[in-house]
Amino acid sequence: MPLSRLAEATTPTAHLGLGLAALGRPGYLNLGRDRDLPDDRTPDALRARTHELLDAAYAQGVRYVDTARSYGRAEEFLGQWLAGRPEAHDVVVGSKWGYAYTANWRVAADVHEVKEHSAAMYATQYAESVELLGGRPDLYQVHSVTPESPVLTDAALQERLAEQAAEGVSVGLSVSGPRQAEAVRAALRVAPGGERLFRSVQATCNLLEPSVGAALAEAHEAGLYVIVKEAMANGRLAPGVAPAALREVAEECGATTDAVALAAMLHRPWATTVLSGAVTTEQLFANLHAVTVDLGKEQLARLAELAEEPEAYWQQRADLSWH
């Protein structure tokens, strides 16, 4: 099973993945985006940037790439890159369904994506993903599951996803919001036909919002692959804007704040893969230095004090503007 390569990888950077959320569309929530990307964000420009990042990540040993139907043209860009790189057959591709991209390549759109967890949406988006990627993804996840999501209770939809698993595509979910832990634990109980449906869980976990950690440890213990997203808190932990405590630890380690932020997540024994959301090669190489950062117990304790109340964290994230 391709997913097993994530847990069995021995090269340090193989436990880091590249997320394409900020590369497949002109507008996104990350801070500093106006500085990191050119004003001319045509599809060709972002395709070239995506391929540049994929080339660099692959050369450095990264073997997991995360995308989604709602990430603009990210699946298309990735599929084109894979078609031109036959040697990249060892890349594990994870995509997601459940959101439709509605911004039509505009930064100032009123609505950028619309969520729908229905069997009809799944069927439509799975077919689109396969076509754009040039084949089936290794992992296909339900996007941004919350405790109220139908996928946790809809038996017919669960049976359809189980059929997908039987066809060789691993079924996973990503979770979102202040009740991530509740959604993860509910997902662990989903077992149509007596067999656990979900093989992986992807969650927002970072120094500012670590509240899902205990639930992810339970998922790992249950045999799921755990993928950490938004480890940089949408840019809030980046150099220049990171909290003082993180800057101090980074200085002690001789590293940048982004490397330390990712290293803190890599230190979690339950984390299979931690995603980089880099949009420049400079950011990517800085992120990859996370594997060289050795954090001590005292430093980890100081970093743990950065945690915010989940409701406050998610409200601040909701208030970020697409730019």
TrEMBL record:
It holds the Pfam family Aldo_ket_red. Residues 50-307 form the NADP-dependent oxidoreductase domain. Gene3D superfamilies: NADP-dependent oxidoreductase domain (3.20.20.100). InterPro entries: AKR2_Oxidoreductase (IPR053135), NAD(P)_OxRdtase_dom_sf (IPR036812), NADP_OxRdtase_dom (IPR023210). This is Aldo/keto reductase. It comes from Streptomyces tardus.
